[in-house]
Write the structure tokens for this entry.
Amino acid sequence: MKVFFINPPFKAEYGKFSRENRSPALTRSGTLYYPLWLIYAASVVQKDGFDVEFLDAPATPLNEKKSLEIIKQHGDGTKLFVIETSTPSLFSDIKFLEEVKKMYPKAFFVMVGTHPSALPEETLGFSEAIDAIARREYDYIVRDIARAIRDNKNVYDVKGITYRLNSEIKSNPDMEYIEDIDEIPFASKFIKEYLNYKDYFFAASSYPEIQIFTGRGCMAHCNFCVYPQTLHGHKYRLRSPENVVEEFEYIAKTFPDVKEIVIEDDTFTAKKQRVLDICKLLIDKGLNKRLSWLCNARVNLDLETMQMMKKAGCRLIIPGIESGNEQILKNIKKGSNLKLIREYMKNAKKAGLLVHACYMVGNEGETKETMEQTLKLALELNADTAQFYPLLPFPGTEAYFWAKNNGYITGKYDEYCKEDGTINCVLNLPGLSSEEMVAFCDNARKKYYLRPSYILHRLWLGLKNPEDLKRSLKAFGKIKQFLFK
């Protein structure tokens, strides 16, 4: 029996739509995430003995017509289709699902992703072509649906699904979160078999790169963060250090030109001893000399761990600094403060780690004055790279309910992206319009990147490391149109 996993086409005429970003869009830097959650689910199903097909339409990118042609070429024998969606692409993805359903009317169609997980009944109600929604972490849900179809058992007994039965929408109890993460096959092995790793780009990373998760869930409770609140919860479930390093070894041997591994965990550094254990293994096996890596790292990371990470090949860390205003940090449940942030940046420089800092405007309590505080902090911290974006309150997050209940957003999902697929600001706050927030972010980006001191700093880094210069030039080539308009 065959199971077909699809990351559908969207805005292909404009470029590569990165659906698995925490804020799905055609990014200004050209970043395209691997569809990792879909990859992991497909790997689990393949491991269970099923034939698997996989189409990542945005990677090339493919338009709808070409995508349907490929599905037709490889779809014979498919009894289960798994189609990922996102908030801005929702209606387009449902339309695409309906087209595939016309080709395979007897197959079972499941939608997955953060949006249907947050709003399963509403999503299911948009089209009768959708047979079920797989909520939250869906690897084992899809596997169990496939088993039920293969064994002629009742699909509607599977945990974690919302479905339609006799015109009534029903939801089964949640599937338990996966505890033994080592049981999940390596994403990199699936990538090797089904995808072209050179199609993907992460602006902060050396190119080419492979993205992986070493754990699921996040212990933090930031009110805007979509993955923990819609897919994986707040318990950080971990792959063992040995399992993680084994994948590093596999990548080093199998992808000879891959230069870097992007660890996409929401907070890789949450468990200090585990980080130290992974670092020691990487050093002992000499992998720190073969591969560099980067990760998301909260601002409570200490100097000792940073120094060990640097020795183990870590090149860059990504903190969500978000705001230069203490009250806003409290409002969004960030669990940080300006003292901690400043200490973090000081220690990162001591350890020799590069920092990509993330800043966000539009949160509860935001004003023109607090936005200027954020820019002032960004210039003071002087991270190696930085991003400035308006808050995008996605369904399922506390930030969404705050914005929706106060009338700050319209709730129109297709407004989350502009016509060209780039991020759109959907918020209008008291005394602060969406246009003003976008203008601030554009201006902040210019002030940050067009400083003579910053340009000289990047050139100096590029002279020391030609790979860094190559990466910077590629990212600059994408973003320059937004800096100079």
